[in-house]
Specification:
single chain; alpha/beta; 434 Repressor (Amino-terminal Domain); Rossmann fold; 3 domains; six-stranded parallel sheet; four-stranded parallel sheet; 12 helices; elongated
Length: about 350
Amino acid sequence: MDGDHVATIIDVAKRAGVSIKTVSRVLNNAANVRTKTAERVREAMTALDYTPSMAARELRSGRSRSIGMLFSDPSSGFQARLHHAALTACSRAGYFLAAGIFDEAETDWGRQIADFLARTRVESMILAPPLCDSLALHEELAAHDVVTVLISPSREAAYAHTVRMDDYGAAREITQHLLDLGHVRLGHLTGPEDHVASGHRRRGFVDAICSDERVALREDWILPGLFRFKDAVVSAERVLTGADRPTAIFAANDETAAAVCFAAGRLGLRVPDDLSVAGFDDTPIATTVWPPLTTIAQPFDAMAEAMVALIADTPSPREADWRGKIRQLPHALRVRASTAPPP
């Protein structure tokens, strides 16, 4: 188009030689449009640099094209990686992602939710851990008839979708990797006690140890890492000081695994020659530290695609007998240079 004129659906219809209704059908992927006609319309849209109005499409369909996502700590490696995957999946599916930080400990959190819903006009919400286990938050969203997707909750909710991976099985698998290397002196740095994934990962570690008759579980070698680098350094130095120490440590996420490597270096221990270190999540830090971390790869992209697909397929308004669906996605063990047989 010439000048500052912004192309409209009328311009597209004129250039393609079709009716405005036909252009609308092409925009909505209707099945009753001939292939050649649809191609002509799309060529006209490209030539005119036409961008359809999302607001108008929402009005026609009666559904919002925005999805909400709430975080408690968006700076963590897991939540940052999940946020990026959700942005990509929403973009591919023609949705906008409205993300917010939420703290249920604040006294006015109910008003915050109401304000967020009013400002963003979202009709669906993704809850990352640990918010996925907030019953009060679930009930508040259900009261607003918001379609909710829970990421790796400790239990399913009938009024919400669930997308998860097997944290317990993955933790048991990576612990078994250390056992298969020959380690019999193993430690574990846990996440926060109130974090559902932390509990699953600790249980997987403990059960793998207890199922191997060669190994004795050392409770004093299970210390809090809290998913934070600073806290994990303190716990790692505590368990690694002195001759009576583990030869391998499984950390509940990659950030705490990186902290173990840092603490080992400060104590003069080499990874993996003196100490094997394994993490969880396969966030960017896993391949930027040296040596790169053996870890469990979360299926972030597949989880995000599943979230958006579940939201898109949910009828609006929901029927009286509507129940959420469950999607469990596979993880992968990534063996890298931070683990080796014991000295």
